[in-house]
Write a structure and sequence with these properties.
The protein is α/β, with parallel strands linked by helices. It is built from 18 helices and 11 strands.
């Protein structure tokens, strides 16, 4: 940047403009009167936007511009948001206010910030868009986001079992995800998101940093893709446990997975229905299921055992696919190991991870956090503390696990402080709660269980 700014002292975050041409979306932002921050999202082999879909495509592109801005806004969190294209109707402003507040709640907590009362997208006062979206007669096929872990693979196999047409899609260049997507046997779509280089310069200049609601950004990318390529549904694989808060702080719930939760799913799904296309469905196929129920389903999908990985440390690596897909030390490794243990033969589980994490006393603090014992749930995409306790209790009742260091410690130290009646595994394996799965995908929803 020719005129360096101090990101934390900026006063205005500006959504400058967005455009699309030849498969490339450009999203432009700026702080104060500083240099433009230009992000590019590349849609491979993109067809031309038809006249029938032009209005819907522009609405989806605008939403992507507004949602992806969270990656840049958080660098300075200035007190004013400015939209160069003009104010928003109430429904759009409500969606964005909620996303930026709750989706950045962990970021704010970790940085000692309070964003309540600070985030206010300009609004026109119109209750909704001037004209509600019409149906576009989108083809009956589904975009299924692949993350490399067990959940999206369960969703893929459920859709395949139900006979639905689907494409495995991911954003970014992870070789781990690419390998999983190829193993599904589905057609694949790899969309590239190139962050503005200026963001890294802002970080060098002392920008605020931390977790953003990346699932929301990817959802907006896929909404554009659905209109561009022609899909009537986007089916994520977010479980009901994702709606549970990580902790509560100063009267505000902080949820690492907020944009994976049902509140965001409902808000975005409603917005797409009214603003983009009345026949575009946004849902999570796994919403009624707990992490443990999904893990039980995954335990039957043996063809994926040598390619899946939920270890976030691996997804931060650049270069070739790492030979070891599990670091064995992060919260995701801990939780997936613990959740799979009740449903897989012990030798098979140890072969996947290459070690026994529950017989390693150096891992005590990590598993305590999962159990919410003397600590809060980790800031990661892991199940609820009660789920982890149910899984650990199940292992404590099985001879092949009882003598492992952390299982024995659970039985001796933690279990006496718990109500055994609340530790049953079976209730976690039953579907429960609301969902937004459309009629066409109901057979796939049933196939999960």
């Amino acid at each position: 940047m020719t005129n360096p700014i101090q990101p934390r002292l900026t006063q205005v975050f500006r959504f400058v403009r967005c455009s699309y041409a030849d498969g490339v979306a450009e999203l432009v932002y700026a702080f104060d009167q500083g240099e433009e921050l230009i992000e590019r999202v590349r849609f491979p082999a993109a067809p031309a936007v038809t006249a029938e879909r032009k209005h819907a495509f522009e609405a989806a592109l605008t939403l992507l511009h507004l949602i992806a801005g969270v990656s840049y806004y958080k660098a300075g969190v200035p007190p004013k948001i400015e939209l160069c294209s003009g104010p928003l109707d109430d429904a759009t402003a409500d969606l964005l206010d909620a996303l930026y507040l709750h989706g950045l709640a962990e970021f704010a907590y970790r940085n000692g910030l309070d964003l309540r009362g600070r985030i206010a997208f300009p609004r026109s006062g119109e209750p909704s868009g001037m004209v509600l979206a019409s149906a576009l007669h989108l083809p009956p096929r589904t975009l299924v986001p692949i993350g490399g872990g067990k959940d999206s693979l369960v969703a893929v196999e459920a859709i395949k079992q139900a006979g639905g047409a689907a494409t495995a899609v991911w954003v970014g260049n992870s070789p781990l995800i690419a390998t999983c997507a190829e193993r599904t046997g589905l057609p694949t779509l790899n969309i590239q998101r190139e962050l503005a280089p200026g963001l890294f310069e802002l970080n060098r200049l002392g920008a605020w940093n931390g977790h953003i609601p990346v699932t929301a950004v990817n959802s907006a990318v896929l909404a554009v893709a659905a209109i561009l390529y022609g899909y009537d549904s986007i089916a994520f694989a977010n479980e009901r446990s994702a709606s549970a808060a990580t902790l509560e702080y100063d009267g505000q719930q902080v949820n690492h997975q907020w944009s994976k939760g049902y509140a965001f799913e409902r808000a975005l799904g409603d917005w797409l229905y009214t603003h983009v296309a009345a026949d575009l469905h946004y849902c999570s196929l796994l919403r009624p299921y707990s992490e443990l129920a999904i893990t039980r389903a995954f335990a039957k999908l043996t063809p994926y055992f040598d390619v899946f990985s939920s270890c976030n440390r691996n997804f931060k690596l650049l270069g070739p696919r790492p030979a070891d897909r599990w670091c064995g030390e992060c919260p995701k490794c801990h939780f997936v190991f613990l959740a799979l243990a009740p449903f897989l033969p012990k030798p098979r589980l140890l072969a996947i991870f290459g070690r026994n994490l529950l017989d390693d006393e150096t891992q005590t603090a990590g598993f305590d956090a999962l159990l919410e014992y003397r600590d809060h749930k980790p800031f990661e995409c892991v199940g609820e503390g009660a789920e982890a306790r149910a899984a650990m209790y199940a292992l404590s009742q099985r001879p092949e696990w009882q003598e492992d260091a952390l299982v024995a410690r659970f039985g001796n130290e933690i279990l006496p402080q718990l109500e055994v009646a609340e530790l049953a595994l079976e209730p976690w394996l039953q579907p429960a709660g609301d969902h937004r799965v459309p009629d066409r995908l109901q057979p796939a929803l049933a196939a999960v269980g």
